[in-house]
């Protein structure tokens, strides 16, 4: 299977390569197909390990590896995504959830060979030493060589039994430790990943702690927030982050991988976002890369989608109350992730709808400010300068026309920029009941820009073209394999 498949199928949602005779390993680059919903690789002759990176596919709904020659541990997919049937009938056993735990037999051959060599060497040395001892004793005491050899055999037998017992226990312990390492991250591992929270690994300072970049031994890239030990308010925000991010998973909410408490230490472990905070992209230096208009629209739609989901879709409605460009993180594809839920509140619609509506409209106002920052490159406070400006802008969007980011002018997107300014001005109206809801804002943006970027459906003729390119690429790859000696395993 070509390793660069994602480069010519960037928006593919379904890959079905089942019932072919593909051999070799599964490319880890499948994880770069960020829009992938279905991946079927069953009924082939694929070998090697299943790449752990596939567990990072956030939109995957169905995945199958049955009837291959795969081995080793199964990636840590989200609960309920896969079953044992998805890995059935692999010639070499797979292990780990949802299959039986990994055992010592699942270790690489080099590990077992080293174990056998060490064992044989130790037994041989012991036999030589025992033989020398008994020969010396025989000369002193005159014990017959037969009796001497008998004692050597008995001691050797007991020695072998003891060694076998030790090795079996050792194997079980190693297997148990390996199984735990696949599903948990210890505090010491986080400490090592961040070089003991070195200042060189610090990537930001927030309200409740310092954010560090780290990389585990298995190459997982992490962002670790070390919460400052202080008042009860810090602890409250720490628990709030766990409660919200631990419960709710969404494309546009930063993924919380875990948390830890050890003594006075409190840490939150997130998936690392390689493009950092949105705020750094809106105030770049002249020599730095600038955000293009399509990227800004993608970010605006993503944040609107995330807030709309929090306000209207999840079972306990959540209001963020602190939306800004500093709270929006960008992954490698510039997909926005809402973070920093330390000020958030749970609000159920019901008897207290007035309070819920007020808090919800605060997020709408902050989102409007974020839109204006995306358009102008300046914060809302810099644009307004006074409360009068804040009052007047809602009725006069032309105030911002002269403030549009110079990197957006002359690019042919003027009409779209003006449309987004009108959306933003509705959000920042001075009276909360005059502002739209986040769902209305999101639907308004979809009406202007068409389908949401995360649910883009490729036109039928483009799909045929993509499939034709894929077929050509696969056939070329297969001919290339036949031209050489044997497939690479």
How are the elements arranged and paired?
Layout: H1 5-8, E1 14-16, E2 23-24, E3 38-40, E4 45-48, E5 62-64, E6 69-70, E7 72-73, E8 94-95, H2 109-141, H3 145-183, H4 187-193, E9 202-205, E10 209-215, E11 221-227, H5 232-247, E12 256-262, E13 265-271, H6 278-282, H7 293-312, E14 318-319, E15 328-330, E16 336-338, E17 345-346, H8 353-376, H9 380-384, H10 387-393, H11 414-427, H12 438-449, H13 460-483
Parallel strand pairs: 1-3, 2-4, 3-5, 4-6, 7-8
Antiparallel strand pairs: 9-10, 10-11, 11-13, 12-13, 14-17, 15-16
Helix pairs in contact: 2-3, 7-8, 7-12, 8-11, 11-12
Subcellular location: Membrane
InterPro entries: Kinase-like_dom_sf, Leu-rich_rpt, LRR_dom_sf, LRR_Rcpt-Like_S/T_Kinase, Prot_kinase_dom, Ser-Thr/Tyr_kinase_cat_dom
Transmembrane segments: 116-135, 147-168
Describe, in plain words, how this protein is organized in 3D.
By secondary structure, the protein is an alpha/beta fold. It has four domains: about 5-100 and about 460-485, Ribonuclease Inhibitor (Leucine-rich repeat, LRR (right-handed beta-alpha superhelix)); about 110-185; about 195-270, Phosphorylase Kinase, domain 1 (2-Layer Sandwich), CATH 3.30.200; about 280-455, Transferase(Phosphotransferase) domain 1 (Transferase(Phosphotransferase), domain 1, Orthogonal Bundle), CATH 1.10.510.10. About 45% of the residues lie in helices and about 15% in strands. The protein has 13 helices and 17 strands. It has helices spanning about 5-10, 110-140, 145-185, 185-195, 230-245, 280, 295-310, 355-375, 380-385, 385-395, 415-425, 440-450, 460-485, and strands spanning about 15, 25, 40, 45-50, 60-65, 70, 70-75, 95, 200-205, 210-215, 220-225, 255-260, 265-270, 320, 330, 335-340, 345. The strands form six sheets. A five-stranded antiparallel β-sheet has the order 9-10-11-13-12, sandwiched between helices. A three-stranded parallel β-sheet has the order 1-3-5, with no helix packed on it. Strand 9 (about 200-205) and strand 10 (about 210-215) form a beta hairpin. Helix 8 runs antiparallel to helix 11. The protein starts with a helix and ends in a 6-residue tail after the last helix.
């Amino acid at each position: 299977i070509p390793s660069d498949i994602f480069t010519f199928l960037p928006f593919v949602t379904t890959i079905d390569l089942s019932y072919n005779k593909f051999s070799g390993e599964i490319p880890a680059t499948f994880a770069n197909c960020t829009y992938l919903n279905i991946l079927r690789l069953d009924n082939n002759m694929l070998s090697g390990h299943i790449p752990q990176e596939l567990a990072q596919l956030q939109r995957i709904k169905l995945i199958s590896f049955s009837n291959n020659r795969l081995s080793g541990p199964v990636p840590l997919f989200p609960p309920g995504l896969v079953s044992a049937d998805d890995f059935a009938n692999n010639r070499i056993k797979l292990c780990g959830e949802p299959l039986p735990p990994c055992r010592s037999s699942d270790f690489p051959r080099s590990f077992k060979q080293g174990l056998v060599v060490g064992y044989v060497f130790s037994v041989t040395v012991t036999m030589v030493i025992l033989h020398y001892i008994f020969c010396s004793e025989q000369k002193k005491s005159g014990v017959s060589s037969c009796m001497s050899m008998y004692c050597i055999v008995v001691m050797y037998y007991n020695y072998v039994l003891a060694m076998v017992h030790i090795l079996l226990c050792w194997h079980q312990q190693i297997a148990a430790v390996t199984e735990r390492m696949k599903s948990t991250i210890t505090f010491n591992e986080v400490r090592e990943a961040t070089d003991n929270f070195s200042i060189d690994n610090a990537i930001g300072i927030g309200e409740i702690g310092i954010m560090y970049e780290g990389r585990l031994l298995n190459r997982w890239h992490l962002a670790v927030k070390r919460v400052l030990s202080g008042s009860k308010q810090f602890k409250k925000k720490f628990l709030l982050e766990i409660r919200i991010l631990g419960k709710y998973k969404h494309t546009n909410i930063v993924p919380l991988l875990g948390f830890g408490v050890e003594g006075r230490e409190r840490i939150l472990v997130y998936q690392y976002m390689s493009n950092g905070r949105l705020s750094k992209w809106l105030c770049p230096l002249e020599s730095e890369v600038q955000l293009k208009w399509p990227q800004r629209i993608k970010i605006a739609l993503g944040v609107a989608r995330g807030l709309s989901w929090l306000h209207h879709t999840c079972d306990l409605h959540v209001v963020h109350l602190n939306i800004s460009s500093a709270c929006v993180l960008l992954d490698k594809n510039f997909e926005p992730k809402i973070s920093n839920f330390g000020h958030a509140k749970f609000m159920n619609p019901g008897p207290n709808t007035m309070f819920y509506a007020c808090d919800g409209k605060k997020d709408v106002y902050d989102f409007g400010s974020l839109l204006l920052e995306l358009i102008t490159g300046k914060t809302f406070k810099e644009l307004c300068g006074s409360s009068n400006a804040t009052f007047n802008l809602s009725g006069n969007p032309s105030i911002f026309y002269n403030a549009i980011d110079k990197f957006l002018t002359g690019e042919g997107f003027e009409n779209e920029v003006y449309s987004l300014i009108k959306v933003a001005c509705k959000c920042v109206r001075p009276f909360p009941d005059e502002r739209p809801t986040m769902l209305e804002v999101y639907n308004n943006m979809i009406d202007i820009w068409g389908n949401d970027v995360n649910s883009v459906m490729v036109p039928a003729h483009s799909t045929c073209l993509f499939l034709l390119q894929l077929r050509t690429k696969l056939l070329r790859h297969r001919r290339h394999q036949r031209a050489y000696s044997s497939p690479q395993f």
